[in-house]
Design a protein that fits this description.
The chain is an alpha+beta fold. About 40% of the residues lie in helices and about 10% in strands. The radius of gyration is 15 Å and the shape is globular.
Amino acid sequence: MTIIADHVPEPEVLLRPGQVATMFGVSGETLIRWANAGRVTVVRTLGGHRRYRESEIRALLAGQPS
């Protein structure tokens, strides 16, 4: 049986902490505090590095709930 998908979702774009900090005009430490407080969601890479979902960050910058 062959299944053909008519739409394959695009992979989520992840941003590095420095990129997000620059977008908000804050320090990396502030970004970590926001993540610890639950204001932004952190995605961990297999190597344990922090990444942030671009869609969520852009929504926050636009003043929309994620």
